[in-house]
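[job 4471] stage=fold_predict status=RUNNING
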Amino acid sequence: MTAAPDLDGGAAEGLALGVVVRAVVDQGLADALRRVLPDGPGLFTLLGVAALAAVLANLINNLPAVLVLVPLTAGAGPGAVLAVLLGVNIGPNLTYAGSLATLLWRRIVQEHGHRVGVGEFTRLGLLAVPAALVPAVVALWLSLTVVGT
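[job 4471] inference complete, writing C-alpha cells
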C-alpha cells in the first residue's frame, strides 16, 4: 500500500488557489475576460491574447489562468489557444506567484541557503518575459501563416 501524497507546501497552496479561483470565475471573471479578450485574426490579436494570459497568470497563477482562458479562446481556433499556452507558460516568470513551479523553486532555493529577492526576480522577469514572449508569439503567427490553421 502506498502512502497518500503529502500536500504540504506548494501542492496544498496550488490546490487552495484553484478552489479560490473557481469561486472567482463563478462570480464573473470569465465574463469580464470575455469582454477584454482580443478577437480576430492576425499577429496583434495573438500578442494581445498571450499578453492577457501572461498578466492573468501572474494575478491568479498559471494553472487557473489556463483553465479560465482555454475555454474562452477555443472557439477562435488553435492559434488563440496556443497564444494562451505561450502566455501562461512564459508570462509567470514576472512574479513568484505566477506559477506553482516558481513557488516550489523558491522554496528549494531557500532550503539550500540562497536568497533571491522579489525585486531581483521581478526585474529579471520584466526583461526576460517580453524578450521571450514576443518572439514566441511571432513564431506562432508565422507558423500559422505558413501552415494554416
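[job 4471] summary: The mean pLDDT is 86.
[job 4471] exit 0
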